[in-house]
Amino acid sequence: MDAFDPLILARIQFAANISFHILFPTITIALGWALLGFKLAYNRTKDGAWMDAYRLWVKVFALSFAMGVVSGITMSFQFGTNWPGYMEKVGNIAGPLLAYEVLTAFFLEAVFLGIMLFGFSRVPNWVHTTATLLVAGGTTLSAFWIIVLNSWMQTPVGYEIRDGVVHATDWWAIIFNPSMPYRLIHMLIASALTVAFLIAGMSAWRWLKDGGGEGVRRTLKAAVYAAALLIPVQIFVGDLHGLNTLEHQPQKVAAMEANWETRSHVPLVLFAIPDEAARTNHLEVAIPSGASLILKHETAGVVPGLNDYEGDHPPVGPLFWGFRIMVGIGVAMLALSWFAAWTIRRRGVDAMPRWLAHGLVAMTFSGWIATLAGWYVTEIGRQPWLVTGVLKTADAVGPVGSAMVASSLTLYLIVYSVLLTAYIAVLYRLARLGKAAANDKPMFPVPTIAPGPAAPQEEPA
Amino acid sequence: MTPFIDPWWLPVIFAGLMGLSILLYVILDGYDLGVGMLTRLEKDENRDLMVASIGPFWDANETWLVLGIGLLLVAFPLAHGLILTQLYLPVVLMLVALILRGVSFEFRAKAPPEHKPRWDHAFFAGSLLTALCQGYMLGAYVLGFDQSFAAVLFCLLAALGLVAGYAFVGACWLIYKVEGELQKRAVRWAEVSLWATALAMATISIATPLLSERIFDRWFRLPEIIALLPIPIAAATLFIGLAIFLRRPLRAKDELSWVPLATAGILFALGFVGIAYSFYPYLIADRLDIWQAAASPEALSIILIGALFVLPVILGYSILSHWIFRGKATHLSYE
Q1: Of chain A residues 87-116, which have a CB less than 8 A from chain B?
Q2: Which end of chain A is less crowded, N or C, counting CB atoms within 10 A of the terminal residue's CB?
Q3: Does ipTM top 0.85?
Q4: Partner-chain contact B96 A412, CB within 8 Å
Q5: Considering the entire predicted model, what is its pTM?
C-alpha cells in the first residue's frame, strides 16, 4: 500500500474530517435534551440552581454546535471534491436522504438556536422552552437521517440498478433498512452516555476544586444517575446490534473477533495480535467457546470465519482493536457509574470519596473515545465496499492528485488540532467560571436590558 | 414512486430552488461576512456590538449554503462532482475559512480575555478568506474553469469584487442595525464599497458575454435585448439612487434605515438574475445542461414533496427569528 496513493489519502482525509465532526454531534444530540430537562426542572421548581446549570451547559452546547456545523459543511463538500463516484452511483438514494436532513433538521436547529441562546429575555418563557425543545428535536432528527443513510450503505435494500445507476424502488424499506434501528438506538444512547460522563466529569472536576455550587451538585448527581441507568441498556442494545451485524455483515464480525476459520466452539479472544499475512493470531488469550456462546447462544455454535471471505473482508487489526477499546470503555463506564450512583444515593454528593471524583474526571471524554472506536469498527468493517455489494470505495474516488489531497489534509489536521485544544480549554474555563457555593455573584454579567420573565438570580435552595 | 408532474420540469424547478438558496445565501451570509470584514475597522465595544448584530442569525444564514450545495449534490450529482473537483483548492480554503469564522464567534466570547484578540483576528481572516474564495469560484465558474493566466487574473478580480460586494451589504446591514457614531461610519463604508461593488458587477457583466458567443447572442439579439434592457438600467438606477441617498444626512428617528439593505438585496438579486439568464439551461457553461446532470425523476419528486412542505415553514421561522431580534442590536447575553 503506497502511502501517497490518492485513494488512501482521500480516505484518511474523509476519516479525519468525519472523526472530528462526530465529536460534536455526539455531544449536542443528548445535551439538547439534557438542557430541556434542566429548563423543565427550572420551570417546575423555579429553583435558580437549575437555571445556573442551564446557563453553563447552554454555552457548551453553543460552542459544540458551532464546531459541529462548520465541520459538517466540510463533509457535504467532500462528497463532490473527493468522492464524486459516490453520488453518481447512489445519488438517487443518498440525495433525498441528505436533502431531508437539511430541510427538516438543519434549519430547525439553526434558527431556533439563536432564540434558545439569546432570546431568554426577548420572548415569553414558554417560547424559550419550545425553542430548546425544537433544537433538541432537530439534532436528533438530523442524527436519524444520517444514520438512515449510513445504515443503508451497510445493509442496502429497496433499490434496483438500471444502466449502472442505483434507483430507489421502496423508500419504506430504504429508511427502515435492516441495520438502521439498531445503529440509531446504539448511537443515541452513545451520545447520552458521552454527555453524561462529560457533565459528570466536568462537575466532579469543579467539585474537587472548590465544591462548586448547588448547580454543580445537581448536575453531577443527575449525570451519574443517567449514566448508571443507560449503560446496561447500551450493553444490551450493543449486543443486539452485533447479532444484527452477524446476520447481515458476517465478515465484519469475523474481523472484530479475529476469527480466521469458520468452525464451532469459537473462543472469545480477549487479547491477540492478529497477523493478516499469516492469517492467524499471535499471543492469543481467549475464553474457550466464548464467541460461539455470545453470537450463537450455544457453545457448539458455528461462527463464520474470515476464510469464507478471503480477499473481500475488512482489515482485521483495526476492527479487532477498535471493538475491544469500545467494549473496554463500556465495562469501565458500568463499574464506575454504578459505584458512584450507589455512593451518592446512600451518602450524597459531598460525601463522595475524592478518588471516585478523580475517576469521574478521568472518564470525562471516555464517551468520545468509545464512540469513535465503535464507528471505526462499523465503517472500516464495511471495506472494501463503500456501499455493501454495490460500490467499492476505490471506484468512488475522484481525480484529484495526491499532492493536492495531501496539502488539504495537512491543512485540515492543523486546524482541527488547534480547535480541539481550544475547545477543551474553553470547556474547563467555563466549568471554572460556574457559580460557586459561597459566592452569590451571578455567573455572567447581568445585562442592562429588562430582566427575563422569571428572576434568574434567586438564592439556591 | 411515479413523478407527479412532467419530468421535464423537475430539473428546471430544482435549478430554480438551488438558485434561490444560493441567492439567499449570498445576501444573508453576505452581510455576516461583510460585517466580519468590517470588524477590523473598529475596536472593543463597537466590535462586540457589530458581532452581536449578526450573532443570532449567522448560523441559519450559513445553512442556505448547505441547502444550495446540497441541492446541487442531490439534484445534479454529475455537476456537483465536476464542479467541486475543478474548484478543489478554493473550496478547501473556503471551508477552512468558514470553520474559522464560525468557531471564532464562540471562542472570542468564551476563551480567556487575553486570547480574544487572536480569535478576533481569526474571525476577520475567516470572513475575508471566505469572501475571496467564493468570489474566485464565481469567476472560475463563469469562465467554465479555464486555467489560462488571463482567466486566473479574472478570477482574482472577481474575488476582490465579491469582497467589495459583501462589505457593501455588511455596511448596509449595520446602517439598519446600529445607531449613533457607528451608524455614521457604516454609512461611509457603504458609500465606498458601493462603487467598488458597482465596478465589479459591471466588469463581470461585460466580460461574460465577450467570453461566450452563446451568452453574447442571448443578450444582444433582437428582441431579447429590449426585454433585458431593464435589468442593467434598474441596477444603474439603484446604484446611483443609493449613492445619493447615502450622501444625505441620516433621517430623524432612524427612518428609512432599512433602505440601503433592501436596495443591496435587490442589486444582488439583479446580478444573480443576469448570471442565471446567461447560463440557463447550462450548469457548466456550454458543456452540461440541467437535464443531463439531473438525478432520476423519482428521486427528484420525493425531494420536491418535502421541499414544498418544508421551505415555507423554514421561511416562516426565519422571519420569526428576525422579528424576535428586530430593532437595534444590543450586546448579546444568555440571560
Answers
A1: 87-88, 91-96, 98-100, 102-104, 106-108, 110-115
A2: N
A3: no
A4: yes
A5: 0.85
